């Protein structure tokens, strides 16, 4: 059963964000870390779907304004090398503070897609307040870019919360060897269950509806998304 929701743009400590939540708020929350689209239409749709199951969704703005609504994907891709890991993690932590503070959430997790999936793993390893970590096709490339100063796979091994991650075997950015390293790090943890999905022949970014012209991508999302929503619902609920 879906709930009535309310949406708004807001500023948290000077940071742009998008908020979708059940009417009247919720004690359950999720921090959403976008892919290269920023707070574009796709991210807002996902935030609203999460709000509709009774969970407050707050979306980080990686590019401080530009998104796929008004900027081409090539231009957004050109901005990615400008992202600084330490700065991004500080911004995300401020938004998590806001979820667990002014927005009234008692439990909050983090979900990210592509570049946001990588950051979700890092944040989950650094901040043990998170109730879950969801990483859709996280971008942990074979060759580490200069601005990737934090090791996402090492941080994944430090996560204490339940983790769900999705890997498409036709991921052109993340070789299977890197996924195997990530899987090993997650499964070596002493605490926190690991739910690891492998989608044969699906491509990097398969969750994005712009990639659903390929049936294998559409099917991978159709299978994964309901499970992600249920995982979020269960891991952020505040009472049994």
UniProtKB/TrEMBL annotation:
One of its GO terms (molecular function) is hydrolase activity. Signal peptide: none annotated. Pfam families: DLH. Residues 16-233 form the Dienelactone hydrolase domain. It comes from the Bacteria. InterPro entries: AB_hydrolase_fold, Dienelactn_hydro, Dienelactone_hydrolase-like. This is Carboxymethylenebutenolidase. It comes from Amycolatopsis thermoflava. The lineage of its organism: Bacteria, Bacillati, Actinomycetota, Actinomycetes, Pseudonocardiales.
């Amino acid at each position: 059963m879906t709930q009535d929701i309310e949406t708004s743009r807001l500023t948290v400590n000077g940071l742009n964000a998008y908020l979708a939540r059940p009417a009247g708020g919720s004690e359950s929350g999720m921090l959403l870390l976008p892919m290269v689209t920023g707070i574009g239409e796709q991210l807002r749709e996902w935030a609203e779907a999460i709000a509709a199951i009774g969970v407050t969704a707050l979306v980080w703005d990686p590019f401080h304004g530009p998104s796929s609504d008004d900027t081409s994907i090539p231009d957004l891709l050109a901005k990615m090398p400008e992202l600084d890991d330490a700065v991004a993690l500080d911004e995300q932590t401020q938004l998590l503070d806001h979820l667990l503070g002014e927005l009234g959430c008692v439990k909050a997790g983090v979900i990210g897609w592509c570049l946001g999936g990588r950051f979700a793993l890092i944040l989950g390893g650094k901040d043990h307040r998170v109730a879950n970590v969801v990483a859709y096709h996280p971008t942990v490339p074979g060759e580490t870019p200069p601005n990737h100063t934090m090791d996402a796979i090492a941080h994944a091994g430090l996560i204490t919360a339940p983790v769900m991650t999705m890997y498409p075997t036709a991921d052109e950015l993340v070789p299977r060897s890197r996924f195997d390293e990530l899987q090993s790090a997650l499964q070596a943890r002493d605490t926190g269950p690991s739910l690891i999905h492998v989608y044969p022949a699906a491509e990097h970014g398969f969750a994005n509806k712009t990639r659903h012209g390929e049936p294998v991508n559409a099917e991978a999302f159709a299978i994964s998304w309901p499970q992600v929503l249920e995982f979020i619902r269960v891991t952020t609920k505040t009472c049994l």
